[in-house]
Write a structure and sequence with these properties.
By secondary structure, the chain is an alpha+beta fold. It has 1 helix and 5 strands, in the order αβββββ.
């Protein structure tokens, strides 16, 4: 029985598999890559005075930027040193 299969018999399955791969790329891989690129742009564009939110939910203002770390002022006389990758986004006019 299996020896009687031709390429025409396998064509629908092949088309389905290719379609699934294309959909996976469009809906999963491409958006993830775009988010990663946007995050890289964010962490390398940090400047003193930027108001940011970290991955842990800490709100702070950038006071110093180094190659791998960033110093965030989170309260009066309180400065935290964090890895640059911990910064998730800018504060977008949110109330503090």
């Amino acid at each position: 029985m299996l020896g009687d299969l031709t390429w025409r018999d396998l064509l629908p399955a092949l088309i389905f598999m290719v379609a699934m791969l294309v959909l996976f790329w469009i809906f999963i891989l491409r958006p993830a890559k775009q988010r990663q690129e946007n995050h890289q742009k964010l962490i390398y564009s940090l400047e003193n005075g930027d108001k940011v939110i970290t991955a842990g939910g800490i709100y702070g203002t950038v006071v110093r930027v180094h190659e791998r770390t960033v110093h965030l002022k989170v309260a009066e006389d309180v400065v935290m040193v964090m890895d640059r990758r911990a910064v998730r986004r800018h504060q977008a006019g949110e109330d503090e």
